[in-house]
Amino acid sequence: MANQVTLTIDDLTVTVPEGTLVVDAARKAGIDIPVFCYHPKMEPVGMCRMCLVQVGRPMVDRATGQPVLDADGQPKIQFSPKLETSCTIPVSEGMVIRTNTPEVLRAHRDIIEFLLTSHPLDCPICDKGGECPLQDLTRAYGPGQSRFLLDDKMRLAKHVPLGELIYLDRERCILCARCIRFQDEIVDEPVLSFYHRGRSMQIVTYSDPPFDSYFSGNTTDICPVGALTTADFRFAARPWELKNNASICTQCPVGCNTTLNTRREVKSGGKWVVKRVMPRQNELVNEIWICDKGRFGYHYAESGERILSPHVRKEQGLVPVSWDEALDLVEQRLRQAGAGTVTLAGGRLANEDLFNLAQVTDHLGGRKLLHTQVGGGEYVQRYGLGKGSNLGELGKGDAILVIASDLQEEAPVWWLRVKRAADRGAALMVLNPRPTRLDPYARFIHHYRYGEELEALGRLAAGEGELAEAAEALRSAENLVIFYGSEGLGLAETTALAREAAGLLAGSGRAGKVNSGLIGVWQQNNTLGAYDMGFRPEADLAGALSGSGLAWIAAADPAGDHPALEAALKQAGFLVVQDLFMTRTAQMADVVLPAQAFTEREGTFTSGERRVQRFYPAVAAPPGPLADFSIAARVGLRVGIELEGASAATVMLRIAASVPAYAGLDYALISEVSEQWPIIGREDRYYGGTGYDNHQGLGVQLQPDAVTDPDGEVSIAMAAPAPLQVPEGAVYLAPVTRLYDQGLTLKPSMKIVGQRMARREVWLNPETAARLGFGAASLVTLEGEGWTASGVEIRVDEQLPPDVLLAPRSVGIPATGPEAVRLRPLVTEPEA
Amino acid sequence: MSDQVYLLLRHREIPDLDRLEVYRQNEGFQGFEKALQMKPADVVQQVKDSGLRGRGGAGFPTGLKWSFLPNNLWPHYVVANADESEPGTFKDREILERNPLQFLEGLMIACYAVQANTGYIYLRGEFWQIAAWLDEKIAELEQAGLLGDRILGTDYSLRLYTHLGAGAYICGEETALLESLEGKLGQPRLRPPFPAVEGLYGKPTVINNVETLSNLPVILGKGNSFYRQYGTDRSPGTKIFCLSGRVNRPGNYELPLGRTFRELIYEHGGGILEDGKIKAIMSAGASSTLIVADEKALDTPMTYEMTDALGAPLGSASVIILDETVDMKWLVHKTVSFFRHESCGKCTPCREGTYWMNHITRRLNSGQPNPEDVELLVDVAREIQGKCLCALGEFSTMAVLSGIEKFRSDFNGS
Lengths: 832, 414
Fold this sequence. Notes:
The structure holds two protein chains of two kinds. Chain A is built from 26 helices and 35 strands. By secondary structure, chain A is α/β, with parallel strands linked by helices. Chain A has a seven-stranded mixed beta sheet with strand order 16-15-26-25-24-17-18. In chain A, strands 1, 2, 3, 4, 5 and 6 form a six-stranded mixed beta sheet that branches. Chain A has a six-stranded mixed barrel with strand order 30-34-31-33-32-35. In chain A, α9 (377-383) packs parallel to α14. The relative contact order of chain A is 0.11. Chain B folds into three domains: 10-227, NADH-ubiquinone oxidoreductase 51kDa subunit (Rossmann fold), CATH 3.40.50; 238-323, Ubiquitin-like (UB roll), CATH 3.10.20; 328-412, Up-down Bundle (de novo design (two linked rop proteins)). In chain B, 43% of the residues lie in helices and 12% in strands. Chain B contains 18 helices and nine strands. Chain B has helices at 20-25, 30-37, 40-50, 62-67, 91-98, 100-113, 128-143, 174-181, 210-222, 224-228, 261-268, 295-298, 306-310, 328-342, 348-366, 373-384, 391-406, 408-411; strands at 77-82, 118-123, 159-164, 205-209, 238-245, 251-256, 278-282, 290-292, 318-323. In chain B, α5 crosses α6 (100-113). Chain B is globular, with a radius of gyration of 22 Å. Chain B starts with 19 loop residues before the first helix and ends with a helix. At the A-B interface, α2 of A face α14, α15 and α16 of B.
């Protein structure tokens, strides 16, 4: 622990760790010093000059080195002749700070007056109005009247797109550089910069595409004025009309804490609607940041394509029916199917949904299957992060291994946290078949050949060859966190990879330790919760579905994912689908049950770090759909098992009673909060930005099984993957994840992020493309095992290894794992 | 009439001094060769003892500045500040154009003293021809074995590089200069850390003005007692005074420190144009506090310690002479326009304050000012003072406040 320093701020004695900045020390003591450019997450720059204070230091006799005392025997304090910026000065022993003398208040007033000479004062039409630091601080410290003549104001561009996601209003910008510094210091994607100088200085973006960063939205939160706004929220609502509702992001397994701002509005027919997604502080998970997918990808919940009533297949196809009619039929068919029931759940469902589905399925003696292309959850349950872990604490002396993951694409905030840990000195090892955006921070990089991830991990474990040094760093690390992803991998490969990675962790004696553990980079947000509730992936999913008496599919679209699964579903005895949308699977169903979106109900998700977190209802559900746990409870009641269907909180009590890892959990515990640093408050947004503070729960991290049951073992009946043989004329296809995918939960946000979405294209090394006889931009048809995909564009990238074809997931290329595929030129009709 | 003393502008007495063989025939590189035989710490000590003070404006003791470099952080860098941008300053240019080898020798001595193996010369963008010229000279020195690896058979190696700025006054400020040299936008850094500890590329760095460096061959070559016979005890040596404004013979005058303004203006400068009456002196270019040119001021010795007597610093000794024909509100408009144009924009008071002041000075000179404009101008200038990130913001208020205070009648009725 750092040495403590005691100082006086406005007659208050404050003790803080050495190195604390005066502005932060004041903050901790509850004394507000106004700032614009300073942000507690970034290095100080002392540019805006708003935080000027009077600084006194004890006088020291130069000859003796002793403090000079006054008549009362107190140390004499020497005040510096000029005011100093409190954001740039670290505290020192005996320091005396004055933040409210007439001179200091005059300085605050002067700086505000200066800033307002350039500011348009268009608060009435500004998106920031109502939550604007400049507005707030002007009211608190400003002169109230301007002596600057209106005619002398600069007129500047007010609608400058920094890309299609973020807009700049040059008149409002006070040139604090928070956005520039966020991109540079925090994200290390320095795509923003100042250009020109003096009053002509402006924020510009140098990247192509412009403002090329997955974190761009955060700059609008920390912008202390309305200069940066998102395309999504711009002119959409006034902050004071918004209600805030705590939620958890559903786009990936990081589980970022969010606040959904909602408004009841005429243009939506008097309904409450989500107007924007904001980060909610959880220093253990996402700090005060979220990625752009999380910020802009919420529109699916409000999509007009939602299914609003139960449907039953009749002669004319699927027709809307009452819940009773639909459930009557489901009951009848379930009773017939009995143990032949196969329940297939997606990782999007909440724990409460999964629990109730599992209970019904178990009651019938059916099978509980998990729809996922990433496996190995059993190992994460056993060797996941120790309870009390925080990636934000990893640093010098710790090691992080990321294998088979393009982490920025798969889980951006994890990428950010891992990068920051490396910045703090953690030894980062990146094992991946191709370069990724994580490589620049890695101490050890190893690019293995696609398909050789196990060998690469084995070489690392053995410390062979070029990996000897990495192996040593790994051995000697205090804490070790291993991320495994699905770069080029499918279910069998990731399961095998998880086993090896778990072995490495357990073998090094770090099982269950705080700040050590295994993290699976899942493709859905609650895959781990599904494992916890008893769902397991099945290698032969097609076989399981085709042989089922009744397939009950919840929050999954197997038919849309792969033609083989579509064919299998056709052979299922009966098909029940519960979902938000009329997916391809739902269109085949005998009964379709409409589910509520996460914005309309409550529940919990278990993040990849095994943190159980609550989300809350933000808007009223449309009449018709029910929460998935409610649907399962109703079905259960009909087939003879009584489940909690009225409230998610009571379902959690049942979970706590029957799932050992969740023992003792309840919603009150999950909702507990403790003080976090920095103190982000809605009352003084100038300090941390407009992100929300957390009153609704930091969540509870689960204890890994390795701690609760040290003698237990993981057993998985899944065959190891056979090495892939690529026949002559074929090429190795590796499925990869793109952040902006074309999945169900992002596609409805097309109008915002559409330009950046993964397209129907595959990527090759240019030489490989040439060898196969295709140039960049040519269109081809891919032929895989049991599927073809046509109209696929060839793209080349020199950084890619040879003889491999990268296929983004979700764009209609159904490969679920590595596969040998053939390419044919797309045949177009000859012109007449 | 006292003569000028040519320690720096020696080319005025020695033709072709810019040619290596001529320079060497005239004691060239003797200072550097002597230095190479000394311990670096002894070179630092000798420069400390010489009393040499920085000629860029601040007058900080050069040897002391060097001694701040920590010896446990390497490499060290020396950067020659050849960004000469202060309005009314044109001394470095003459040295660089006419006596480049003495400057280079001085830079080499400085590099040796702090054991830098790389030195940079940061030149203002308009000096592109000089940069090319210096590159030729550096190449010649490399050929002659005076630069490069293992110079003159010693273990010491040194390479020099020129770098051009892009036309920003702020890049004469040493931390902005470093930013620019690193390829970034020229804006001052926070201090501390000071460049002596965290300078170029985060390494300990000495930044010295061209004229300062040009003194070093004399100090090392001829010794401190020779050097100290010129100037005063606290301001030893000679100084190049850049005389401009309403005088008959503007130009560079190299005089021992301690001569009076009167001598500079009337003996060397030939007096005021059209036999006019002197009104004010700016001793440090556009950054000057205006000095009322009364008898006392004219008889004040020009030294670094004159600030105490006149309330105005010597600065870079860019002495601009203003006579009765000059309207101070016009002058203030000129200086404020300059600083508004050159403000880097990093800190609020300078960026917004110079812009605001410029609007007021324009109105004052338009003949249609608002009644409260003079008071407002004083207020804005005072609001800027004491709040800026670097000295440029403060500079912008010097002529404004001293002009209005001392020449109020020029602003009345405007």
